[in-house]
């Protein structure tokens, strides 16, 4: 009986350790000069018993001395450092964002800059093998900021013929058919869409946190197949808190014994614990990178260093 009690106690302690919150340390001093409304935090707390390095940045949306915007490569890809160097205002933060394809260096998710759509959601994915004449049509997610500096995460429909993106505040299941490009009116019938008038926005997916709770919408957005959400990789994510702070999170990974990365569930838990009301995953893997005043936080996993990407999120002084 005593042996059984000890086993239960050991199992309880192990479970508590595995699910304990990470310990974050303020590292503002390493990235000065910073305004008082931006803070940088780092953790090296084990993640479910595995080596872990992650950083998150908070930026106060209410500070009108900060500008929240995007930058795109216009058919080219640049590293985050190159985007930093191209911007004469010396941005406070540069972060990778959208998923993309390498052939035309084009974004596969929405990018909005100064209220203008610069890139659009991918809504048609061709089938493979015996399903080459079948197309899957997902409604991917994005995070946006209004002119009044309110953040929102939603599931979008975009069209090159429309001035604005259309957003649903609830996930919409993807559907299949044999039409490569369904009409806009047909797509908009799939959900409760309204015009999404954002000043700045970037897409990614899947959504990780909704209403302050972990709820991963990978099944609706079909970003990762099978059990891939349980694979550990470098990660990038964004979210926001109820008190108006924008959150940028990057997890280092693919360095065995040093930093092994995170699953999407672990990433969601981090964002929930930080206090995000809503949060979504962005392009990860070798693309993951956050620069603060031009200095790297996590070490990119590609052996060449930072990966060139077609879009970044930027925070800078007005």
Summarize the structure.
This protein is α+β, with helices and mostly antiparallel strands. The chain contains five helices and 25 strands.
Structural account:
- The chain has about 325 residues and is an alpha+beta fold.
- The chain has one domain (about 20-315).
- About 15% of the residues lie in helices and about 35% in strands.
- It has five helices and 25 strands.
- The chain has helices spanning about 1-20, 80-85, 185-190, 220, 265-275, and strands at about 25, 40-45, 55-60, 65-70, 95, 100, 105, 110-115, 115-120, 125, 135, 140-145, 150-155, 165-170, 175, 195, 200-205, 205-210, 215, 235-240, 245-250, 275-280, 290, 295, 310-315.
- The chain starts with a helix and ends with a strand.
- The model is unreliable at about 5-20 (pLDDT under 50).
Notable traits:
318 residues, alpha+beta, 7-stranded antiparallel β-sheet, disordered N terminus
Poorly predicted ranges (pLDDT <50, ≥5 residues)? 3-18
- Give the percentage of residues in beta strands: 25-35%
Give me the Rg, rounded. Answer: 20 Å
Helical content band = 10-25%
Q: How many strands in all?
A: 25
Sheet with most strands: 8 strands, antiparallel
Report the end-to-end length measured between terminal Cα atoms: 68 Å
Shape: globular
Structural class designation: alpha+beta
Average pLDDT, all residues: 94
Order of helices and strands: HEEEEHEEEEEEEEEEEHEEEEHEEHEEEE
Number of domains: 1
């Amino acid at each position: 009986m005593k042996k059984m009690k000890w086993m239960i106690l050991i199992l309880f302690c192990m479970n508590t350790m595995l699910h304990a919150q990470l310990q974050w340390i303020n590292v503002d001093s390493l990235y000065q000069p910073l305004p008082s409304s931006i803070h940088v935090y780092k953790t090296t707390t084990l993640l479910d018993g595995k080596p872990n390095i992650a950083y998150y940045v908070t930026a106060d949306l209410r500070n009108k001395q900060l500008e929240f915007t995007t930058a795109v490569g216009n058919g080219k890809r640049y590293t985050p450092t190159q985007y930093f160097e191209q911007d004469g205002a010396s941005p406070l933060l540069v972060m990778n964002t959208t998923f993309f394809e390498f052939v035309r260096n084009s974004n596969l998710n929405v990018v909005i800059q100064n209220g203008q759509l610069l890139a659009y959601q991918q809504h048609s994915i061709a089938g493979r093998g015996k399903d080459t004449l079948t197309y899957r049509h997902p409604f991917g997610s994005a995070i946006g900021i209004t002119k009044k500096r309110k953040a929102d995460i939603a599931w979008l429909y975009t069209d090159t013929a429309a001035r604005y993106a259309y957003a649903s505040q609830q996930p919409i299941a993807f559907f299949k058919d044999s039409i490569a490009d369904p009409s806009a009116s047909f797509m908009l019938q799939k959900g409760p869409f309204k015009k999404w008038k954002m000043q700045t926005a970037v897409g990614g997916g899947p959504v990780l946190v909704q209403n302050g709770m972990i709820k991963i919408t990978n099944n609706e957005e079909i970003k990762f197949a099978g059990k891939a959400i349980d694979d550990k990789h470098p990660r990038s994510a964004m979210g926001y808190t109820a008190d108006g702070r924008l959150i940028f999170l990057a997890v280092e990974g693919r360095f065995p014994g040093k930093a092994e990365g995170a699953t999407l569930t672990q990433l969601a838990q981090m964002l929930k614990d930080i206090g995000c009301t809503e949060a979504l995953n962005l392009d990860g893997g070798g693309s993951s990178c956050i620069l603060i005043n031009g200095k790297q936080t996590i070490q990119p996993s590609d052996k060449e260093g930072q990966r060139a990407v077609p879009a970044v999120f930027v925070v800078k002084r007005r």
